[in-house]
# Entry
Amino acid sequence: MVGTDPNVRAKWWERKRVGHTWKNPKLVPNIAEYIQSASHDTSNFVRRGSRNRKRPTRLGDGSDGVRPDSETVMSLDSSLEQNHVVSCTDDSSMNSSETANVAVAEPSNANGGGKVKRRKRAKIDVTFEKSDSANDLSSPAELQATIDEEIPSDSPIDSVAHEDASTGTVDVASKQEGKPEPHGMPEVWAEGRQALCESVPYYRSYQSGAYVHDDIAYGVLLDKQCGRRDYMDDEIVIARAGGCLRKNKEGDMEATDDHRIDNAAIRSFISNQRRHVPVVLIVGSLNPNCPTKLPHRYCVLGHFQVTGVWCEKIQKRKCYKFRFEKIDLASKSWWSPKSSANPPLHREYGPIAPRRTCQSCQAVYSQMYQQGWMCLNDTCQAFFKIDGTEPEGNLAYTEAFLNERTEWPKQIKPPYELQTSVLSEDDNDPMVSYSRHAWKGFVCPRCGRCNSRIRWHEWKCATSDCGFVQHVRHTVISPKMAATPFDIPYNGQPPTQVVKEDWVTEKFTFLDNYRVQIYTLPGGSTITNFLANTYVNIQAGGPDEMFEKLQSVEMGLRRFPLASHGLTGEAVTQHFSVNFGMDYKYVVDVDSKSFQEAPQLITDAVNRLTWAGAYVVNDESFMNFNELLAIGYFEGQKISYHDDGESTLGPTIATLSLGGSAVMRIRMKGVYYHLPPRPKYNPSAPVLRGAKAYEERVALNLEHGTIEEEEWNKKVDEMYECHQKSRATNPPNLLTMTLRHGDIVVMHGAELQKYFEHSVIPEGRLRFALTCRHVKPELIAEDRRWKGEFVRQPYNGDEGDPPIEN
# Structure
């Protein structure tokens, strides 16, 4: 019987992991028994008879690890959901007297896996230990690609709710008052969330407290929000699993639902414990349970191990918690108070707290609370009761429970160092210098600060009195080396690579060596793509030469601070940029350089793009471009959906693509695609072709005023009822184009930036985009207008006919 035989359960577990469906919820395997059957030592807390409602637990995606020993784990049931990304909310940061919230996010579609049902969560306590050595171990691969590739534009979770929405500033001083000074200083630290996530391999979660992947937890951030009975001292951390929380009217966090064992984060912690995988703990300065004042906003504590996972009740809700122990018990923790004693030379390992067997379910547990022993099997009728009665008031952990230590196997080293090395300067390896790894941050080898890479040609520590700088001399590569294996050079007019909706009309023509594709969007705005061939690109001063000069000329490319974000500390754009000519502000405030101080290739690009823009507009209304924004993309960088609809701009925007190819996608903005909220439905508002319920909306708008108002409103209600059941998150793409080296795209139309938005995803190793606009001089300060002036050298697009080969 699966429900009773541990060996059968173990076999069932493995069969379940390869995709079998379990029908009977009463026969779901118990994690603790599964661990026992795998010959793991379970010495602290074991719970039997646990019930899982669907699949067995497989630990999440990669940031918080738990290795439950047979008795260290309070029987954890878990449902296996492939590709779950589990996060421990920053608010629930796992701190000493605090519980860390581990939230489960739906799996990324990019990693495969279909629709995943949301499950209730449960609360968990875990303990970590710091390891003695962090050498000779490989760091984890790039995980959570969607998080690595771009900074989230918003932060909807509680972990950052306490921060200023525009600047990311926080009130740190109030959380540090009255605490003693720490014994030492952290080996690795950060003042901003982005810098932290870009610099270390064990924590890349911008909006969550735990970083997990494929059943392994890598790092946990313990910050502001802590649960009841969360705890932190020199060597022990107890924290709450995330999720199932919301703010009440008083602004306090309260539980809204039960945690469940199938929570991906919970599964991941169990997996770390079972597999002896350490977790790196990071503490934030807003953590009230940290025993000492923190010198920085985020401080890395060290390597810890998971020694306990159990379920308890908080606010009448089931809540899972984790217990972590520092692995390196021989050295004094840097965050311990200065006046504290050194760690003992000799340790006793194993359970100390008294243990009892539940008379109802026969599960064995240690006594964790001073108030008395309780069964922690959440399926047992005696669950979380002392002598048959649920405890009242605050519970306190016993000294014996907190003093238990688990010996870390000496032969197991942590998989990575806390302080990662800076990418070495290599003049002869373009495969590295423009790679995804190259534009990530670094941990300063002098002061330990995490830094984002800000400048194109160097890594520089942001600490004012540090002075560490490492220059990078990029190897100049050809357009062919920057391209993907699928980019084909064309000697004649190139074919198109485009996907469009039927209501996007298409025309094409040939202009010398260009194929010109003209797409008309709903509303009449146009997007024109000039497809260049090899002969266009190889001309003197042409795209090939421009691309090579952009790599060698120092023109000030850098990642600029974002004006608005939801992260702590400074947040910068993903790409590198520099602006020339008239002042232009897109998502960041960029101080523009004048065209007089620009390299010639920049003014040559303005001339080339002016020719293309004038060709598209084809009348006297065209206004010469007086601004150019140069953007550089390393491998893996991109720009998500946005518009260029600033009030200071003219209706025409032109972009020259250089280097690797990219995919440009255009879609309707959500506010115009989706139905507006029912009370705001306006029959006079324009409805664009391609919008949701387009035909119904047009018909209803025409009927308005011709039939009774009550009848008309009834029809509108029926339309809403029909279409809101299947409300899509994002509007579909209307037009998808591949942009190659030398191609020019011209977007024209006053309404284009109002109704539509676009994204650009580079596919090659290195790409530059040179984009020109007309900034209205009358809206710019008179003493700054001179920046957009220069002597123009007209480009006519005619390089002549290519030579005929015999």
About this structure: The longest helix spans residues 600-617. The chain has 17 helices and 32 strands. Residues 388 and 792 are 88 Å apart (CA to CA). Residues 1-170 have pLDDT under 50 and may be disordered.
